[in-house]
Task: structure prediction
Amino acid sequence: MASAAPPGQGGSAPPLAVQRGIVKMVLSGCAIIVRGQPRGGPPPERQINLSNIRAGNLARRAAAGQPDAKDTPDEPWGFPAREFLRKKLIGKEVCFTVEYKTPQGREYGMVYLGKDTSGENIAESLVAEGLASRREGIRANNPEQSRLAELEEQAKSAKKGMWSEGTGSHTIRDLKYTIENPRHFVDSMHQKPVNAIIEHVRDGSVVRALLLPDYYLVTVMLSGIKCPTFKREADAPEVPEPFAAEAKFFTESRLLQRDVQIVLESCHNQNILGTILHPNGNITELLLKEGFARCVDWSIAVYTRGADKLRAAERFAKERKLRIWRDYVAPTANLDQKDKQFVAKVMQVLNADAIVVKLNSGDHKTIHLSSIRPPRLEGDSTQVTVGTCGREVTVGNITYSDEDASPLAAQVLGLQVRRQRRLEPLAGTAGDPHRDGSLGSGQHLRSRVQHGSFPLCSVKSRMFLAILPQAMSCHHRGISSSPGWRLSRTAVLTAAGAALASGEIAWSLFGRAGARAGFCRV
Result:
């Protein structure tokens, strides 16, 4: 990015006003964005271009909607110059003077590291390292320009940077803006931390990252949370949701253009989910604790750093009514003791988390399981097909694979069920010795409130209990789109119905049992 010199090289001029700010972003080797201090919201910011020097331009992607446009690559030594400034300035306090402002509003001046002009002169440092050159046509008729000319000659003599032998082609990045198969790309990383630079923050929980060393530019959504966003409509300015700007600034001030590590955890509708690791803390937990985000059930299941920590951070913000929780009212249960815990008989399964029971009085009641969410219905078909996707699944001491015609596969593959199904209780449950809730050799288990056991049932449902956690695990890792693997709500419904077929159960405990078995996710 070329910079301009102020007009009028000669004559005396009044001293320029010294201004201060924090470096938010480095645009190139000769342009930065400086922000002020936040006071009740995101602070103002301005772009400052370095006077009298030129550094190589960075790569730019072709504009969308222009089929004839082409991507522009880095100029030689452009990226090293950007990196030199990024590592030196990001998050640091600088002072600057504005020497010249174009009619278009672009400001050019000198930038110094620190609180006054006695600090390091950034333009001089770039020229001394051979990462920038003096702008053509500049005459050394003042002390600042004479100093730049002297430093440039020294860099040439030492063959530094752009003055070294060769064309500098090794400094040009091979940027990859798109990934053909994001799911396969995520799986290939095996959830190992990847070095990255955060290049852009879209909102508090969505960033654009440059993955190193292969220079993939990817959009990453933070697993398990969602921040307020900026609503965008055609031909209309974006409208921020409450606290969207504050959440974005919270993330920007901590992560923008910082060196981080990212754990790529899953892929949802071509969107990559991940967790950003930084020495100063976990941004996902911080956003929740400060009331800038809420937990999201559909992605918290793939979070690899402990979902209970996210729930605890969200609860912390709720209790203190921070930001998005300012109007939060904790739910209260106004139930009689007799309605809080009772024994009834299952009559119908409405959904994987909703059932109809018959009370001792003969009345029917619909029960919805709390704190869990089952898989959603996929399409209109009730056909369920479950396979192991080429993987081995261990049930007890026996290992099955796709090729095995196992009794377990026979119970699951190609099964058709109705969404609403009437169930008859199984006989012979009385006197079962396995009261601790463990799976025994008996055909089914009866749960009792006084012993705190959770409902388990027949051999058939026990097979479901064994296979569905594997199914849910594969589903959350993004395997659900593979041929032969389709986990829909109907399969979960069948397993839930079989689990409930044992008759009398303790309702206050079933929700936890269902989540533990893998029917639903907490």
Remarks:
- The CA atoms of residues 350 and 420 lie 5 Å apart.
- The first helix runs from residue 78 to 89.
- Residues 1-11, 378-467, 469-489, 502-522 have pLDDT under 50 and may be disordered.
